[in-house]
């Protein structure tokens, strides 16, 4: 057996490396998808009119610092808005009147939920709902609006109509 191991030491080391890499990848994927949410996390919900770019495992940030992750998303059957559940670090005591907005790091950057602390003295508790939210911006819609209104001024009229005096 020892002679077999000596002859195949290179293959054994490569096999060990592959197993260690696979274990690291599973651990990384578990954490990146929200499976490894912090123990004792505060779970709050937020309703967004548009959640484009947000997935399970997306960051939740305050002032650019990660304070939690998105753990689930579902369409609310009554309001037809996206109900996102956020797992927040229990050490961060955010005011109950905080607001949430979906934003990104730039045109090609990651999309995340930004929490803006309010002024209330009562902190968010497990099961609370963030009422003041802003959904994701539709970049193509904004470009379309800019193009369609680029020549518009107070005196101009739409095509086929006479200008207003």
What does this structure look like?
- The structure is a single chain.
- The protein is α/β, with parallel strands linked by helices and 165 residues long.
- The protein has 2 domains: 2-32; 42-138.
- The chain has 3 helices and 8 strands, in the order H-H-E-E-E-E-E-E-E-E-H.
- The chain has helices at residues 2-7, 9-32, 139-148; strands at residues 42-48, 59-62, 65-75, 82-88, 99-104, 111-116, 129-130, 133-134.
- The chain has an 8-stranded mixed sheet with strand order 7-1-4-3-2-6-5-8, with no helix packed on it.
- Strand 2 (59-62) and strand 3 (65-75) form a beta hairpin.
- The protein is elongated, with a radius of gyration of 25 Å.
Structural class: alpha/beta
Order of strands in the sheet with the most strands?
A: 7-1-4-3-2-6-5-8
Computed Rg: 25 Å
Mean pLDDT metric: 80
How far apart the termini lie comes to 99 Å
* Number of extended strands: 8
Brief digest:
This protein is of the alpha/beta class and 165 residues long. It has helices at 2-7, 9-32, 139-148, and strands spanning 42-48, 59-62, 65-75, 82-88, 99-104, 111-116, 129-130, 133-134.
What brief labels describe this structure?
alpha/beta, 2 domains, 165 residues, 3 helices, single chain, eight-stranded mixed beta sheet
């Amino acid at each position: 057996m020892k002679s077999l191991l000596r002859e195949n030491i290179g293959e054994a080391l490569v096999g060990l490396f592959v197993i260690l890499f696979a274990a690291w990848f599973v651990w990384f994927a578990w954490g990146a998808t929200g499976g490894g949410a912090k123990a004792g996390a505060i779970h709050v919900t937020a309703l967004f009119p548009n959640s484009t770019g947000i997935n399970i495992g997306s960051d939740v940030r305050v002032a650019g610092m990660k304070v939690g992750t998105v753990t689930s998303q579902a369409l609310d059957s009554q309001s037809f808005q996206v109900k996102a559940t956020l797992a927040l670090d229990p050490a961060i005591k955010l005011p109950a009147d905080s607001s949430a907005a979906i934003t990104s790091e730039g045109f090609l950057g990651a999309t995340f939920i930004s929490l803006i602390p309010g002024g209330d003295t009562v902190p968010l508790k497990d099961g609370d709902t963030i009422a003041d939210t802003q959904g994701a911006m539709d970049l193509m819609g904004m470009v379309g609006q800019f193009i369609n209104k680029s020549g518009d001024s107070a005196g101009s009229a739409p095509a086929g109509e006479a200008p207003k005096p």
